[in-house]
Write a structure and sequence with these properties.
By secondary structure, the chain is an alpha/beta fold. The protein is 37% helix and 20% strand. It contains 20 helices and 25 strands. The strands form four sheets. A 13-stranded mixed beta sheet has the order 2-1-10-9-11-12-13-14-15-20-19-17-16, with helices on both faces. Strands 21-22-23-25-24 form a five-stranded mixed beta sheet, covered by helices on one side. A four-stranded parallel beta sheet has the order 4-3-5-6. Helix 15 packs across helix 16.
Length: 673
Amino acid sequence: MPQEPPTSTNSAASGPRCVHQLYEAHVRRAPDAVAVVHGRDRLTYRELDERANRLARHLREAGLPKGGLVAVCLGRDAEVLTAMLAVLKAGGAYVPVEPSAPPSLLRHVLADAGLFAAITRESLRVMVSDTVRSGRPVICLDTQAEAVARRSAEPLDARAGASDLACVLYTSGAAGRMPRGVLLEHRHLVSAYEGWRVVYRLSPEDRHLQTTPSEFAGFTGDWVRALCSGGALVSAGRDEDLDRAGDAAPLHRLIVDQSVTVLACDVPTARGLHRHLRSRGADLGDVRLIAVSGDSWYLDELQALRRTLGPHVRLLNVYGVTEAAGSGTYFELPDRPTVTDHPERVSPIGTAFPGAAVAVLGRGGAPAAWGARGELGIKGTVVGRGYLNGPAFTASRYLRTGDRGRVRDDGGLEHLGRVASHADAEAVLRGHPSVGECLVTSVENAEGHKTLTAYVTPVDGGEVDPSELRLFLATRLPSTRTPRTVVRVASLPRTRAGKLDRSALPQPARRDSKRRASGGKGTLSVDGGEGGNLWGAIAGIAALFSFLSLMLTDALWPYSTDLSLVPNPWAALFTGLYVCESLAFGLGMGFLFAGRPLVARHGRSPALTSAAHLAVVWLLIAWWPQDNYYRLAAKTDWARQAALVYAFNVTLMIAAAVVVAFVAARPGKTDRS
């Protein structure tokens, strides 16, 4: 069932048509209110507006045409907001470029956009000039500050309209593909803001934390929510960046010291902050709303954060896409959440924001029935014009997102990972108490074979046992979807957008080997597809049960092993037989408890795999009770003799037949390609 966009009061149609006009209304309303906080720098709405007006006039004097694209390559501070607002005021569209991005990505974006001009600093001029067309202006805000300052700070006449281009935001990209530019018009940003305003309950008293690099849709969403509602935008610096600092303490201090009330962040930031708060017994000060997006965030994590912060903080799991200006759907944890089985496996994304319609698509692109799984699609007034140098979006059709989902029984949407991901295995892995984060993917080895591999990080301060995890997965998943290799890593690699980066995963080492993972992520160890420590576990269990069977034989079957009347060497031979029966029983018990992954790795059907596993166990353990019963049974006790034959001999034949069927059967569909 599609999540149709609700209507909201004070719709965008009755207000300003352009996103910067929403901001300008607050310049007139409260010019001395703080607009931007970055370190020790403070800019009021008046100061920010005057700077943007001067730069906008400078752009017009340089010949910026209506809808012309201007790269903004400045980083994350007050100047980047001045530049973005100036481009909009001048009638152009900004293209955010992050200076710290990889050089190949910078070159791709700057060359792909077909820029009219670029706004940067002198230290970045050479890098930017290499890809801006010859003769096009490159404005350096530091060395050209005097020329810009001479321009008038008075408001400019409106040049852009609702359907004019406002910005080009690049997607985070997929493995092996460069990001694509998404064309967003003013009306798309205004519609997205209206949805955020209603759901987030924005007000001029809010102070918004900004942690996202300027190149991503989250950065634009942050400043639009803050400045278009009359609030203040608090920008995190390098010291507060969790990726660089590796410690959430500076970010936590910034949130508390600056009285942040609205925190929109990615999943790694939310997890890092929560770990810090839990270890310190701290809170988040004045924060009233936390909206987490960018990757799968699970219900158990929402519930744990609620227990840490208390009911006065609203918690939202947000699903958004760049093609819809970062808008999409949201799930708000209720004050009294309903009981859900396996909350660690569920990533609820709830209902659509106003301005968006989201559905689970079936065949042909039509919305699927409740409970069905399929690709998530989005349409509505938040969806952009199309891709730069690519296809346009069709307003009446759902845009496929590349993510899977389903409609839950309560009508809310659930995120099931990327279309090509192994979200079911990841969800099961998250249920193991020793696993912190995990990722399951198909890895190709040097011989060209692909093996389903699980990468796991331990819970804080703990350890993970790959053999135990393989058994845990094998008993809960069909054999065709069970990872054959488990890799322990200190942390999972992520993209600059905070999403899991499957292309940066280390290659699994050979069984029982250890090496240093690439990228400084810590040590890497593997339990390979050949069994790894499973045989050790089987041997330990076998030794225990072999000993128990030897000790319990005379207690369970008195005199069944009495050899007092048997002469040597025959008594010694029979003693060896009894020992072998106990060893076989112990090995069978070891295989029962720890051997299923060895059977599951052959890729047969789940039913045949289970049958073969139990058949092997019975072939081993049956000899110990069988022989002891036989030795105590009278030869003419036909009822007991028949019972023994059918209880042991016939079932052993059946078990052997099952093993033959398992060996002869064709493997099922696996992850190999």
